[in-house]
Amino acid sequence: MARKGAPLLTLEEPNLVDKLRRITHKRSPPTHRLGNAAEKLEPCESMRSGNFEDALLKEMDQANSTSFTVEIEQVAPPKRFSTPSFTLFKGDSDPESHLKHFKSVMILHKADDTLMCKVFVMTLQGSAQDWFHTLPSGSISNFKELTYVFAKEYTSYRIIKKNPDHLFNLRKKFDESLRDYIKRFKAEKANIVGCDDRIASSAFKRGLPTECELYRELTISPCQTLEEVFATAERYALWDDDRIAAMKAAKQADQPVEQASQRNGRINDKDGGKHRLQPQGGAPAVESYTEFTIPIHQILA
C-alpha cells in the first residue's frame, strides 16, 4: 500500500521517466531505487516509441514512394487519354491471361511505354496491389521489367497449356448425343494453341464408337481437312437428333399403355385374382366335366 503523501505512479503516465526523476530529487538517499527504475524505464520507453515511430515512418515512406523510376513518374499521360475498362487482377488467376487482356485493350497505346506501366498498375486489386507497393523504390524503369516481375510473382497461378495429344483421350460417351460430342471436342480443341488439323481429325474419329455410322463414313471416305470432318459430322448429327427424338416420342406413347396395364395388375392383386375368373356380363362361371362311357374301375385297372 502506498504511503501517505507519496504520489501514485501509473504506466499510463505520459512523462513517467521525468516524474521518477523529480521524485528522486525530492526524497532522501534511500529512495535511490526509484532513480534506478527511471534509468531502466528510459531505454524501454525510447525503444517502444522508437519502434512505433520507425514503423510509422516506414509505412508512410512506402505509401508515398513508387516502384517506378523518376523518368516514368515525371511523364504526364496524354491529354486526350481516357482509361479503358479492364478486368481487374486480384492475385488468384493466370497472370499470362491478364497480360494478354491488358495488351489487347491497350493495343493503340502499346508504343507509349510509360503509359503502359502506369495504367497496368491500375488493373491490380487487393493483394496484387499490395504486392506492387512492396517492390523496391525506383526498381521499374520500363513495361518489360514490370511484366517480368509480375509474371514471376504469380507464376504458380499459370494455367498449364494442354498438348494436342490430349484430344486422343476424348471419347464419345454411351448416353451422349453425337451433337454434344462434337461440341465437347471443339471446346477442348479451342484450348490447344497451334493444334494441327490432321491430328484433330484423327483424334475426333478415334473418339467415336466403331459401330457408329459416322465412324464408318470417315473410314470409307476420309476427309482431307478438319472443316470437312466437322461438316460430315454435322450431317450425321441431324440424323442422330431425329433418331433420339423418335425414340423419346415412342417412349412417351407407350407410357399410357404401361400405366393402364400396371393399374389393372394392381386391381387383380387386390381381389386375389377373382376378377380374372368372372366372365363378361357378371354371370357366375360354369364348371365343365368329362363324361366317360366305361366304368371307372376299368379305367384305373
From TrEMBL:
PANTHER family hit by this protein: AMINOTRANSFERASE-LIKE PLANT MOBILE DOMAIN-CONTAINING PROTEIN, CCHC-TYPE DOMAIN-CONTAINING PROTEIN
Domain Retrotransposon gag residue range list: 118-209
Pfam families: Retrotrans_gag (PF03732)
Source organism superkingdom: Eukaryota
Disordered: annotated segments: 251-284
Protein name: Uncharacterized protein LOC110768989
Protein source organism: Prunus avium
